Automatic annotation (TrEMBL), chain A:
Similarity comment: Belongs to the leucine-binding protein family.
Protein name: Branched-chain amino acid ABC transporter substrate-binding protein
Matching InterPro entries: BCAA_transport (IPR051010), Leu-bd (IPR028081), Peripla_BP_I (IPR028082)
Positions in coiled-coil regions: none
Signal sequence range: 1-22
Automatic annotation (TrEMBL), chain B:
PANTHER family attached to this UniProt entry: BRANCHED-CHAIN AMINO ACID TRANSPORT PERMEASE PROTEIN LIVH-RELATED, BRANCHED-CHAIN AMINO ACID TRANSPORT SYSTEM PERMEASE PROTEIN LIVH
Single biological process term from Gene Ontology: amino acid transport
MF-aspect GO terms: transmembrane transporter activity
Upper taxonomic lineage: Bacteria, Bacillati, Actinomycetota, Actinomycetes, Micrococcales
Membrane topology: Multi-pass membrane protein
Intracellular or extracellular location(s): Cell membrane
GO CC annotation: plasma membrane
Family according to the record: Belongs to the binding-protein-dependent transport system permease family. LivHM subfamily.
Protein name as catalogued: Branched-chain amino acid ABC transporter permease
Record's keyword terms, sorted: Amino-acid transport, Cell membrane, Membrane, Transmembrane, Transmembrane helix, Transport
Lineage: superkingdom: Bacteria
Entry annotated with the keyword Ligase: no
Length: 435, 290
């Protein structure tokens, strides 16, 4: 045993010496490079009084997938950061917001339990900044019974956009994929198109269906619409399929780690060619450009909200609030913006109300009544409204990688989805875009 | 369709399965522990390498430390759990490592979020064409290393004193202890070697496939298939098994109609081998009877 201990100690000391001597100097860290620095006014959240709210707390909750392989906690975490900022600035007319979120660990049974728990707790007035990857359908059943409404930060599967009591702030994978396709169409780079996605029900197939319908309508030659297994280890077949089809442009509708692996396989085969490669907003993330390397200069991504480097009122406030109230290493991404925006919509909705009358019933009524909500993070006004589907965010921006970082290629553009006719019609007939 | 790129990719992944399988096999033969955490240890090593490179460490140093970390994790588990595991049956030993696998997986998911990560070995940047297939240096390293490790392990088992002790333990643990073999030392060596092998294969797999905790942890399945094909005894057959599983997976995925079943290839191959092996035993029994 002594020999082992001695060997381990020697190894440890050796490792330490090597570690200390092997580092190359680090470049300036900074949370988001290329973003304007914060101003003092950015931290005037809500009433902006600068005084701690001390009244009776208002209970708000969220359900998010934070573990189990997918981590969407950046949405509720930024919602919490904003609520903390509001509480430091007079709260909701003197009453602080007490916020908590439950992790469903990528298990729909757990989502249903959490949703039922919040639904039965009468003191929970609303759900804000949710981001569950699996359970919108089961959660909606509970919320509906209890008359509880969710201003969801991030919705991914179809069910999150087709629920009566859930309204996401983000645009979702289908809209994001169509946005990429229509960007290339406007650039004259969509003569032939190829789509890659994940074979997951109510998610990958939903996006693929949108691509198929739109290309058929617009007369674009869809040369490939491939859904791959989530456990796939070898992307060579996919890359050779792409190479053979030789499309003018292509979109990958996968989570960022899988997109990065597909790109790595394509780089190994030197398959970039003349194809315009792109992905949905899932890989719009400051780290991404650096991870995929120089080979992918010019790679295109959709962004469902303002770019993280944008210089505008709400975008600046989001960064300032994150720097002040969230962990330094909390992701600064679209999901974080979405959670922040959900929280801001909620606070702006409650502030005009009489703080003493706030309970589930009055809050639900106010949330349902949100319409024409404007923010520079969004492209078009956001609304709730009484309906069986909620998909207010259907206008997005496009970014491209330049020197390892995303820069804006095109500003706000409305996304056309053949299945959204009902939503667009209701926007007009119910006047949802105006305050 | 030109199938050569698929064969090349299959051989490369297969050789890393085989490399991993050799690590599993050496540990199993020496300690009787079938290590389900082999993939998780590799995943941990790969993520540590990524983290160290991200913290601006020189890649070669980071890789060396990653492999050392793999060895250290396995050795630590061997030191702590080894004495207890020695006294329980093989099924419980295997289940204990499943616990380690899940603990490591949980730790990895806790420490690293689900953002995109890639490990790019410098050797992957140098590539050349072989009859229409692109091959890079990392892929050659994978193939060469698998062969080298099989031959090296065979030689070490035969000609070194530790190797002799390992073989002694493999045939009879109690007897080996009685004749004066330092059982604990030999077992710990096996844990460390197996951990280092797991680290090397984890880093290579992360470069060749995906750098994701759950994905790398569950690559233990094709790796075990290779060991099953080697019938838990033969290093050469483990190498053949790994290559067969890798090439099989890659070829199946070449055709869109069957590509959805490529993840099932390890199970199918392992099942066939078990069935055939079982059948042959029945035949021998009959021969003995007549």
């Amino acid at each position: 045993m002594n020999r082992i201990l001695r060997a381990t100690a020697a190894l440890g000391v050796g490792a330490l010496v090597v570690t200390l001597s092997a580092c190359v100097p680090e470049s300036d860290p900074g949370t988001i490079q290329g973003a304007p620095s914060a101003a003092a006014d950015d931290l005037k959240c809500g009433l902006g009084t600068g005084e701690q709210a001390a009244g009776e707390p208002i209970k708000v909750a969220a359900v998010a997938t934070a573990s189990g392989g997918v981590d969407f906690s950046s949405s509720p975490n930024s919602a919490k950061a904003y609520f903390d900022c509001v509480n430091d600035n007079g709260g909701i007319n003197g009453r602080p917001i007490e916020y908590e979120f439950g992790d469903d660990a990528l298990d729909p049974t757990k989502t249903a339990q959490l949703a039922a728990g919040y639904a039965s707790d009468e003191s929970v007035v609303a759900l804000v900044g949710d981001a569950t990857f699996v359970g919108c359908d089961v959660a909606n059943v509970e919320y509906k019974k209890a008359g509880l409404y969710s201003i969801t930060g991030v919705g991914v599967p179809q069910a999150c956009f087709e629920s009566s009591n859930i309204a996401p702030v983000n645009a979702g994978p289908r809209t994001s994929a169509l946005a990429v396709l229509q960007y290339f169409e406007r650039q004259g780079q969509a003569d032939t198109f190829f789509a890659v996605g994940l074979n997951t029900r109510g998610n990958g197939d939903w996006a693929a269906d949108g691509i198929e319908k739109y290309t058929a309508e617009a007369g674009i030659d869809l040369v490939g619409n491939v859904l791959s297994d989530p456990a796939e280890s070898n992307y060579l077949p996919l890359v050779s399929q792409i190479k053979q089809a030789g499309p003018t442009s292509l979109v990958i509708v996968d989570p960022a780690p899988i997109t990065a692996s597909i790109l790595a396989a394509a780089e190994q085969q030197d398959a970039k060619g003349d194809i315009q490669w792109a992905c949905t907003a899932s890989c719009y993330d400051a780290q991404f450009g650096e991870q995929i390397g120089d080979y992918w200069e010019g790679f295109v991504s959709n962004s469902e909200l303002a770019l993280v480097t944008a210089d505008s009122k709400d975008a600046n406030q989001w960064r300032a609030v994150m720097d002040e109230y969230a962990d330094a290493d909390a992701p600064r991404d679209t999901f974080s913006q979405a959670g922040f925006l959900a929280a801001k919509i909620f606070v702006d909705t409650l502030l005009p109300l009489d703080a003493d009358t706030l309970d589930r019933e009055t809050v639900s009524e106010a949330v349902l009544g949100v319409k024409g909500y404007e923010s520079d993070l969004l492209c078009a006004p956001w609304y709730y409204g009484e309906a069986d589907e909620h998909h207010a965010n259907h206008a997005t921006r496009t970014a491209g990688i330049e020197a390892g970082a995303y820069v804006e290629l095109e500003g706000c553009q409305d996304v056309t989805d053949p299945d959204m006719a009902g939503i667009l019609e209701r926007e007009q007939s119910e006047g949802l875009l105006n305050k | 369709m030109n199938l050569l790129p698929f064969v090349v990719a299959g051989l490369v992944i297969g050789s890393v399965y085989a490399l991993s399988g050799v690590g599993v096999l050496v540990l199993y033969r020496t300690t009787g522990v079938l290590n389900f955490a082999h993939g998780a240890v590799g995943g941990m090593a790969a993520l540590l390498v990524w983290q160290m490179v991200e913290l601006r460490m020189q890649p070669p140093v980071a890789i060396a430390l990653g492999v050392a970390a793999g060895a250290a994790i396995a050795l630590l588990f061997g030191l702590v759990a080894g004495p207890f595991l020695a006294r329980v049956d093989q099924l419980r030993k295997a289940i204990a490592t499943l616990g380690l696998a899940l603990a490591l997986l949980g730790l990895m998911l806790f420490v690293w979020n689900d953002k995109a990560r890639t490990i790019r070995l410098e050797s992957s940047r140098i590539s050349f064409d072989v009859a229409g297939a692109r091959v890079n240096v990392t892929q050659l390293v994978c193939l060469g290393l698998a062969l080298l490790v099989v031959v090296g392990t065979l030689l070490a088992l035969r000609y070194t004193s530790t190797g002799t002790s390992m073989r002694a333990l493999a045939s009879d643990r109690e007897l080996a202890a009685v004749v004066g073999t330092n059982v604990r030392l030999v077992e710990n060596t096996a844990w460390a070697i197996s951990g280092a092998v797991a680290g090397v294969s984890g880093i290579l797999l992360a470069d060749q496939t995906r750098l994701e905790p759950a994905f790398l942890t569950f690559l233990i399945i094709p790796e075990l298939a290779a060991v099953v094909i080697g019938r838990f005894v033969s290093l050469w057959l483990t190498l053949v098994g790994g290559l067969a599983v890798g090439v099989g997976q890659s070829l199946v995925s070449a055709w869109p109609t069957v590509s959805a079943f490529s993840t099932a290839v390890p199970f199918v191959v392992a099942t066939i081998v078990i069935l055939v092996a079982a059948r042959r035993r029945v035949v021998t029994v009959r021969v003995v009877r007549t």
